[in-house]
Amino acid sequence: MAPPTPTRHRRRGHDPESVLSIAVGVFNERGYDGTSMEDLARALGVTKSAIYYHVPGKEQLLARALDRALDGLFAMVADERAASGTAIERLEWVVRQSVRILIDRLPYVTLLLRVRGNSATEQAALGRRREFDRFVSHLVKEAAADGSIRPDVDPALVTRLLFGTVNSITEWYQPARGASAEDLADALLKMTFDGLRGRPAA
């Protein structure tokens, strides 16, 4: 009896999710523009033609990766907890959730923060980022208007500094040795909001 025909080991068990995950790692290491399909094939341990079994090309992988980061943020924006309660409560919740999303989707958020608009895909991602920034800026303005945070700090500057701090986590955080997302969010909120909160009139 003839031995069974071997399965398609040339793809080494890769599915669209594993292809995307490995590709994002290569993009973050080499830079998207500096990554070729040959680089991706080498990282995956397959031929270039095998990659096309899963995805039409490099830019489609980039688009899927950026959507993975952005979809998490916009799911948060759509959550009722981002729309109910006082402005300061909503702002604190959004910051806390942003840290959680960043840690949960660290490679994807890292890639998002490095795009510069060099293609239509990157420009679309930057447009969605600006939309999220406007949402946060509106929350900051609401909190300033109702006296929840200090009125003597420019809301636009608060937004940039606050999320600049959140985004900086991608530059140094190591999941194997770092604090939990909850620990990071607690520390960030204590450092920023204790200084931002408005003080009752004497």
What does this structure look like?
- The structure is a single chain.
- It is built from nine helices and no strands.
- It is an all-alpha fold.
- The radius of gyration is 21 Å and the shape is elongated.
N-to-C series of helices and strands:
HHHHHHHHH
Runs with pLDDT <50, length 5+?
1-11
Strand content: under 5%
Shape: elongated
Essential attributes:
202 residues, mainly alpha, 0% strand, 9 helices, disordered N terminus
List the helices and strands and how they pair.
Blueprint lengths: L15 H15 L6 H8 L3 H4 L6 H21 L8 H18 L1 H9 L5 H26 L9 H18 L8 H16 L6
Helix pairs in contact: 1-2, 1-4, 1-6, 4-5, 4-6, 4-7, 5-6, 5-7, 5-8, 5-9, 7-8
Short account of what is shown:
The protein has 202 residues and is mainly alpha-helical. The chain contains nine helices and no strands. Keywords: DNA-binding, Transcription, Transcription regulation.
